[in-house]
Amino acid sequence: MEFEEFYKGPRGIAVKILNRIERTDSYLDKLLDVELKSDELNDLDKRFLTELTHGVVRWKTRLDFVIEQFCKNKFAMQDPNIRNAMRVALYQILFLSKIPHAAAVNEAVEFVKKIRGQKAANLVNAVLRNIIRNLNKLPTPDHETDPVQYLSIMYSHPSWMVKRWVERYGLYETEQLLSANNERPTIVVRANSLKTTADELVKLFEERGIRNTRSKYVENFIKVGHLSKIYNLDLFEMGYFSVQDESSGLVVKLLDPKPGEIVIDLCSAPGGKTTFIGELMKNQGKIIAVDKYEHRLNLVKQSCERLGVENVEFIPKDALEVDVEPADKVLVDAPCSGLGVIQKKPDIKWQRELSDIRNLAKTQIELLEKASKLVKNGGVIVYSTCTIEPEENIEVVKEFLSRHPEFKIEDARNYLPSDIVNEEGCMETYPHKHDMDGGFAVRLIKVG
């Protein structure tokens, strides 16, 4: 890569990652993982790099709006290195109170000077220092004239997405949702009932000085805040817990797998739901874990080995081509737009288009059709997504039921707290209402 030797330290590497995202639509987490494995950064620098990259991607529209007000030379016309160096600096100025403004500016100026020369560095210096002088009176878009544009810029979400949500939820609730999406995500773990209990795990966390609170919605789930080195803990290596959001755990509670049953997980990787199913089944019965890609299925295998889940058969195959005997229960955790997990994956909001939502519904219906052939009479399908879009959720279910009168919805209140169940009897979670990922799940019984 051009100028590779200049991308040093957390700020320089952040610019490199942001350039790659702009140029290739690569996923933030994959690019970040590569850099975090390097020995060049210490733990503090790695946390700072994660903060900078996630922060800039999360707040990109708002950062750009502010810079554009002060940048006489059109900001969008600047070289990507200059744009992203300015974004990284402004993110620190606006959102990281512990970083001195001068440090944020100086690092950006020096970086740009090495890559683009003194003239470009002077521009960056002038714009950023002018913004700092005006921090108490930064311009904002007009809320009255165009509330959708206001929310889109101030909360940094694509305008098409904001428009949809305003039409569905109204201005106030949309603002709450956008705000929740921009929060730093809380890490939640699931105590592994094959090896420990939630009470025991809480004690072990407290012995290690890890602050935690119990989940209000799912037994065995514990919130541990923003703990950055969760995967390095001895307790993780020992298989005492998995990292899993409550909304994902609730899907498995809705499936209600029992010891001795046969359960098919049609879209198994990376394995959070598969292993939770195994824990609830107490290694009795059989889980058939399906994923199209063997390397992804290997992640599920590794998790099963770490956790002591032993009743899983792995099938590396496209879910639509699987041919096995009908099972008691089938989980269809369908590929989706992911618009319920923007808090954890801020880049997803910039990578999605409105057309994706409609296109994904076709695949989702096909998976439900396949599941209907793989479940016994009297058996259960749970269909779930990590999105809040009706076209991928209830509308897919209604389309399926219109073709399959032998299935009916069983009210999720029989298995889950009522405040996360909607009028149709489906699980529906939202970041701003339930302090967890947005998601959907429905329990379908094969009655005939």
TrEMBL record:
The active site is at residue 386. It catalyses: cytidine(967) in 16S rRNA + S-adenosyl-L-methionine = 5-methylcytidine(967) in 16S rRNA + S-adenosyl-L-homocysteine + H(+). Transmembrane segments: none annotated. Its main location: cytoplasm. One of its GO terms (molecular function) is rRNA methyltransferase activity. It is found in: Cytoplasm. One of its GO terms (cellular component) is cytoplasm. This is 16S rRNA (cytosine(967)-C(5))-methyltransferase. Belongs to the class I-like SAM-binding methyltransferase superfamily. RsmB/NOP family. S-adenosyl-L-methionine binds at residues 267-273, 291, 333. Residues 177-447 form the SAM-dependent MTase RsmB/NOP-type domain. Keywords: Cytoplasm, Methyltransferase, RNA-binding, rRNA processing, S-adenosyl-L-methionine, Transferase. InterPro entries: MeTrfase_RsmB-F_NOP2_cat, MeTrfase_RsmB-F_NOP2_dom, NusB-like_sf, NusB_RsmB_TIM44, RCMT, rRNA_ssu_MeTfrase_B, RsmB-like_ferredoxin, SAM-dependent_MTases_sf. Its EC number is 2.1.1.176. It comes from the Bacteria. Specifically methylates the cytosine at position 967 (m5C967) of 16S rRNA. One of its GO terms (biological process) is regulation of DNA-templated transcription.
